[in-house]
Amino acid sequence: MEVYQSKDNENQNIVMSKSNGNLNQLWDVVYVDEFKGEPKKGELNEDFGFYVERPFHIVSQLPRRRYLSRVDGLPHGQQVVMKQPNSYKSQVWYFDQKSLTIKCQENNQSLNINGNGGSKHLNTRGTATQWW
Amino acid sequence: MWNKHNGLNQKWKILYLDEKDDEPTSGLDEDSGLYRNRPFYLISRLPKHRALTVHSGRYLRINDKKKDNPHQIFYFDHLTRTVKSKSYTAKSLSIPNRGRNNQLDIESTNARWWQLFDFRDGFVVNEKGKVMDVSGGADQNGRDVIVWNRHGGLNQQWDVVYTDEPEPPVSF
To answer: How many angstroms from the chain centroid is the CA of residue A76?
Structure first.
């Protein structure tokens, strides 16, 4: 039993194939009575390294320590820049457990690579939970 | 997005808001060179030492300094990191047209790069390098203040005089 084409996407088909030992054919059996459940608000999601719905800034390690910020009006679908800290929600991000994405508190959209991942430009978009 | 090369420009820190120290509301902000929320005049170093003044709620010109004239008093706002007018506290020093030209005025605060200014060695320097400049170097009341490439002339040099401190001696 394998994940078709190894694509780790929501609604990706599961098919049968010859055994090859690849990750898309490997599964864990988790008994329901041993399942801890998904991390709740304020708890750490160990797979992603973020606390659920706990707001944060993303701070550049360049000398001026600017914050990742969402802005409008830039070309090429670019919406994410770094700016000096201010009091706006455009600089506040959080990890959303339901979609497993990072969202901007200003518009509750997910951090996203433009063009379905085909671009180098970052923006926020309605949540798709695709790899980009 | 870019391939990983471990440069400092690819490194980020996650700072949770509930672990963040409270932003200081007073004292020197070393990045901008200005004291937080401490009202000041911006005095031109041209011979008449005129003060930056807001006209008609928007335009910036130099005029004779008058004590406690709110149109001549500005402060560095610690939340938005912009320079605000005491008369119009929702507005900040700004290069109009999203920074595309050489004018200077006060506009609704958005803290974009065209509203970010530092005070360094007598120059009021915008984020992208242009400095505050008395247009044409004319030391006249009502003369426009603009931004221009830095050339070091006296018409680009300013003193920040905080309202709670003695004024520097004026020489003619």
So the answer is: 21
- Which carries the bigger pLDDT value, residue A28 or residue A62? A28
Domain contains B147: yes
| pLDDT tens track for B119-172 | 999 999 998 999 999 999 999 999 999 999 999 999 999 999 999 987 666 555
Q: Which of B122, B98, B100, B120 is nearest to B111 (CA)?
A: B98
Residues 6+ apart with CB under 8 A from B14: A50, A56, A57, A58, A59
Closest CB from A59, A64, A71 relative to B31: A64
Examine residue B35 and state whether it is found in any structural domain, yes or no: no
SS3 call for A110: strand
Task: Give the residues across from A57 on adjacent strands.
Answer: B15
Per DSSP, B163 falls in state T
What are the backbone dihedrals phi and psi of residue B66, each rounded to the nearest 5 degrees, phi first?
-125, 130
End-to-end CA distance of chain B: 56
Which residues touch B107 (CB under 8 Å, ≥6 apart)? Answer: B58, B91, B92, B94, B96, B115
- Nearest CA among B115, B112, B114 for reference residue B74: B115
Identify the CATH number of the domain defined by range A37-132: 2.80.10
**Cα distance from A119 to chain B (closest Cα, Å)?**
8
Distances (CA, A) of A41 to A38, A61, A95, A105, B121: 10, 28, 10, 15, 48
Predicted ipTM of the assembly: 0.74
B23 touches chain A (CB under 8 A): yes
List the single residue in A54, A88, A113 with the smallest CB-CB distance to B111: A88
Domain ranges of chain A: 1-35, 37-132
Report the length, in residues, of chain A: 132
Contact A62 B79 (CB under 8 A): no
